[in-house]
Design brief:
It comes from Haloterrigena salina JCM 13891. This protein has eight helices and no strands. By secondary structure, it is an all-alpha fold.
Length: about 240
């Protein structure tokens, strides 16, 4: 557990696991409450954005529909818990997974269906694109506040695995519950895939990436601890 008045150390992890410059990481951690506020504002905007789709979705499936605002809510809660001195590994893992997966999936989808998204105001298109990429950046700072224990990663895998299932494979109530895309799901795309297959492939890929990154961070931290790093630095 970390004191709220100090910044956790940055361990010497491989660059592919810590691509965000230390200066930027320190800035985000130093202004953690601002990060929380920005993410809560993004959550509110996201739920507003999903309003029409939620209105057409059975209430029982609502938790699985507004993926991006749920991800920003999770990271706001995870950072707030850390700042208060009560970091919750399961919550931080959920936040990491959500911000990696949705932070990449949305720009990927905006590019894959760029022509069909022409109805969006150009400023809104750019906002959606870059604000979601910034979700990935903030996710990649979470290694400073958690060591991603296997049980915490398991919680995230269970939740986002269920999300994949109801989004694309077993819709449970009504049609698929993925974020609405601007073309029919059976619209032919490329390499023989239809539109639903394209967005599903993207989300599966980014989910696997999140699993790899979280477990790789865990492994490298454990290796550093066994190699002689002070035990109390594990997870910093």
């Amino acid at each position: 557990m970390f004191a709220s008045s100090t910044l956790p150390d940055r361990e010497p992890l491989p660059t592919y696991l810590t691509p965000v410059p230390k200066t930027l990481e320190d800035l985000g951690l130093r202004f953690a409450w601002l990060v929380v506020a920005i993410n809560l504002a993004g959550t509110a905007f996201g739920f507003w954005y999903y309003g029409p789709q939620l209105g057409e979705t059975p209430a029982v499936m609502w938790p699985w529909v507004p993926d991006s605002p749920m991800a920003t809510l999770l990271i706001a809660l995870a950072v707030a818990c850390w700042k208060l001195g009560y970091e919750q590994p399961w919550l931080t893992s959920l936040a990491f997974f959500g911000n990696v997966i949705l932070g990449l999936w949305t720009p990927y989808t905006l590019l894959a269906f760029a022509d069909a998204y022409s109805y969006l105001d150009p400023l809104m298109y750019q906002f959606l694109f870059w604000s979601h990429l910034s979700m990935v950046v903030q996710a990649l700072v979470l290694h400073r506040i958690s060591d991603f224990p296997v049980w915490g990663v398991a919680v995230a895998v269970a939740w986002y695995g269920s999300n994949l299932i109801v989004d694309y494979f077993v819709p449970i109530a009504g049609g698929p519950h993925h974020t609405a895309i601007p073309v029919p799901g059976d619209e032919p795309m490329f390499l023989g895939a239809d539109a639903l297959g394209v967005v599903a492939a993207g989300e599966v890929t980014f989910a696997l990436l999140a699993v790899f990154l979280a477990l790789a961070i865990r492994v490298k931290k454990c290796e550093a601890a066994r190699g002689g790093a002070p035990a109390d630095r594990v997870g910093r």
